[in-house]
């Protein structure tokens, strides 16, 4: 129960951040792909820089989790095709719908009901990937 | 406290995202949102037909709670922490969007042409949302992650696969905005 509340609070923090940072705005995604503002690059760059330092510190000093467990960073499976093709398809959708899987849910909470269509379609897309998985280059 | 009603600057937002990833790591989890779409498929019963969805979804319940939080966070941010949700876009972007038919670019948080209730009866807008969402779901799972899983978590951990995926995100995004948008709008 206590852990559930922690996950919920982290999620609320994430939702507020996505909305207030405007990373959930379709307009900001469009502007980013036109290279006409630093805003989104600043957000991703700052998160990335701080994230990189954090993870290296956790690894170097073998920092344990809050519950005293060892922290694992499972390496990603080595491949080119799946990341390149999957990435390009994701990018096409990201720019068209102007939303990625986190902000989608934030927008739902913010009251933009048409985002439900995007969410349902993304669940369908995930399902179709599962259907075709073995026939796609990985 | 007036600052809270203003849009957050990029460095605050970037810091918050890194903090969220750090908190998730420190409670023994990881930061990645698209995995939830797979979990939802499994809960809906896809595992009976497709092996890819045969897994113990209860182990991923924590991430669904994070999603629930993201929904609540969106509600709180829009209703209590924002007075006027306009976006200070680059004037060039606004002019460009206006030529594409987005008349009130930046005056609202989302374009009314795609995200007001009237889209439910507009075939073209519906198609844009359906195709966009489908590609996001399909592409994220094919690539094994989305913006949070690859661009933040993966790159922070210096994963080459994530770099390939993020380059793919941009190749796709740039193609959509610069080559396909002029054809559809």
From TrEMBL, chain A:
**UniProt KW Transmembrane keyword:** yes
Stretches that traverse the bilayer: 39-58, 79-99, 105-132
UniProt keywords, alphabetically:
Membrane, Transmembrane, Transmembrane helix
Q: Which domain of life is it from?
A: Bacteria
Question: Which InterPro entries does this entry report, sorted A to Z?
Answer: DUF6691
Recorded protein name is Sulphur transport domain-containing protein
From TrEMBL, chain B:
Q: Where in the cell is it found?
A: Cell inner membrane
What Pfam family does this protein match (any one)? Sulf_transp
Q: Which UniProt keywords apply?
A: Cell inner membrane, Cell membrane, Membrane, Transmembrane, Transmembrane helix, Transport
The domain of life for this entry's organism is Bacteria
Q: How does it sit in the membrane?
A: Multi-pass membrane protein
Task: Kindly state one GO CC term assigned in the UniProt record.
Answer: plasma membrane
Reply yes or no: does the keyword Transport apply: yes
Main localization of the protein described in the UniProt heading? membrane
Coiled coil segments of this chain: none
Q: Which family is this protein grouped under?
A: Belongs to the TsuA/YedE (TC 9.B.102) family.
Instruction: Tell me what this protein is called.
Output: Sulphur transport domain-containing protein
What organism is this sequence from?
A: Kordia antarctica
Give the taxonomic lineage as stored in the record. Answer: Bacteria, Pseudomonadati, Bacteroidota, Flavobacteriia, Flavobacteriales
């Amino acid at each position: 129960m206590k852990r559930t509340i922690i996950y919920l609070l982290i999620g609320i923090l994430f939702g507020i951040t996505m909305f207030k940072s405007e990373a959930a705005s379709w307009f900001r995604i469009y502007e980013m792909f036109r290279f006409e503002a630093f805003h989104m690059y600043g957000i991703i760059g700052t998160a990335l820089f701080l994230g990189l330092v954090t993870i290296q510190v956790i690894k170097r000093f073998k920092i344990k989790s809050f519950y005293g467990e060892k922290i694992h960073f499972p390496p990603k499976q080595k491949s080119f095709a799946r990341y390149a093709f999957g990435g390009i398809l994701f990018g096409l959708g990201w720019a068209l719908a102007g939303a990625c899987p986190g902000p989608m849910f934030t927008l739902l909470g913010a009251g933009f009901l048409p985002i439900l269509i995007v969410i349902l379609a993304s669940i369908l897309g995930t399902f179709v990937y599962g259907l075709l998985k073995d026939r796609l280059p990985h | 406290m007036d600052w809270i009603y203003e849009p957050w600057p990029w460095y605050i937002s970037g810091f918050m995202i890194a903090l969220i990833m750090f908190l998730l790591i420190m409670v023994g989890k990881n930061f990645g949102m698209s995995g939830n779409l797979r979990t939802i498929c499994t809960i809906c019963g896809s595992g009976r037909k497709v092996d890819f969805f045969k897994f113990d979804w209860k182990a991923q319940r924590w991430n669904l709670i994070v999603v629930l939080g993201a929904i609540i966070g969106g509600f709180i941010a829009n209703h209590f922490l924002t007075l006027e949700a306009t976006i200070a876009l680059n004037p060039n972007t606004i002019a460009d969007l206006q030529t594409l038919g987005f008349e009130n670019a930046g005056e609202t948080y989302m374009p009314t042409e795609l995200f007001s209730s009237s889209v439910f009866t507009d075939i073209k807008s519906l198609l844009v949302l359906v195709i966009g969402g489908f590609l996001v779901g399909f592409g994220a799972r094919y690539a094994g992650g989305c913006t949070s899983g690859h661009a933040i978590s993966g790159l922070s951990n210096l994963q080459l696969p994530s770099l390939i995926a993020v380059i793919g995100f941009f190749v796709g995004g740039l193609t959509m905005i610069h080559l396909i948008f002029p054809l559809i709008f």
